[in-house]
Amino acid sequence: MAKKPQEIVQFIKENGIKMVDIKFVDVPGTWQHNTVPADQFDEDAIVNGIGFDGSSIRGFQAINESDMMLKPDCDTAVIDPFLAIPTLSMICDVYDPIAKALYVKDPRNIAKRAEAYLQKSGIGDAAYFGPEAEFFILDNVVYENTGHRAGYEIDSIEGHWNSSNAENPNPGYTIRPKEGYYPVAPMDSYTDLRSEMVLKLQQFGMTVEMQHHEVGTAGQAEIDFRFAGLRQTADNLMAFKYVTKNVAKKHGKVVTFMPKPLFGDNGSGMHVHQSIWKGGKPLFFDAKGYGEASETMLYYIGGLLTHINALLAFCAPTTNSYKRLVPHYEAPVNVAFSARNRSAAVRIPTYNPGVAKAKRLEFRCPDPSCNPYLAFSALLMAGLDGIEKKIDPVKAGFGPLDTNIYELAPEAAAKIKTVPGSLRESLDALAADHAFLTKGGVFTESFIQEWIDYKTERELKPVEIRPHPYEFYLYFDV
Q1: pLDDT tens digits for 173-205?
Q2: Contact 51/82 with Cβ under 8 angstroms?
Q3: Phi, psi at residue 221, to the nearest 5°?
Q4: Which of 187, 193, 224, 275 is the least buried, fewest Cβ under 10 Å from its Cβ?
């Protein structure tokens, strides 16, 4: 797509575009938008921006300082494939019109600052990220929370519980818990739906590598798109959620990226592959290293594992995230690194031995409820802190561990640190350990405190003070 404002305006005219949809991300990580008639969208709108009320956006401005500006990024322009009226979609940066600068709390701006810090550090000039965002495709979702009643119900044609339905005929092709990885049709009933998602993602400019059913019953899925730079990958992940949800809606289905919507089966994680390059050369490969990892990669791993508790405040940022981070559901609860071992928090993939450009690490703790601009930025800053301080993960006691950690004897397992068990623990860790994030002004002290306050007051406390349905099972007759 064109990269100059005048080329965008020309593209609009030549392609019969009637509307321009401008999108931006709020602090928790949800896309927001407004739509401008194409005849009102000129070069001035692109260069100088379009005004909006920042006080109505989660995590942004107070009502007495609400005027903000959206400036579209020309590199993100794409025709929206879901709208009947020809519409050009563009992602925006948020500007403060008084400061005449990028808005300090815009998550996309934080990602820009993280990329700039990498270059200024001299360690590398490009950081590549490749997330694997898992999700569920469901047929029906019902939930309610009032003062006297609470509960939820989800359903999927693939759910193992539907094998006993009295419908006639009942085909019986449901998926047992933890047996959803790679079965063919008719067990996997969503191949065409996921393929349609792939085609729409390609229309958004993404390179898709594969799609498949995931381990969980009830339609768990994964679609992998090609890695890119930090900010571009975060842009792509926002588009990924938009596309999968809208394709599902077209077919009367619903997609959720909630980490743990289903008890007793795997949750949805978002393993994040990472690498650093400099001068067009990968820095994470060493043919003689453990798992072919270079010393630079090991230091980066040391940074991730040293700061893992604080990182999870951004990478697993919901109360529901910690329903997933429990043993025996392929959840990476063990603070360790390993080659090939999926029970460790950091894995060094070995699919392409000897191929330097393919060498990367995989951080397995995040989930797709996160704001990717914040999560990826935090991961990069932790990794760079490890490189700058030369944190050796072996000397720090993080491994490598090449055994199934879940099956270790109790006395051996007890020696391995585990990730926080709740959002409160992660937020407390972030409050105590965030100096690595504020280097170069990437994250500000005030932003970190506002994040902790928002998560505590708007999410954590409301969950903690409510009676849980299972508590009635346990305690009603006490």
Answers
A1: 899 998 899 999 999 999 999 999 999 999 999
A2: no
A3: -140, 160
A4: 187
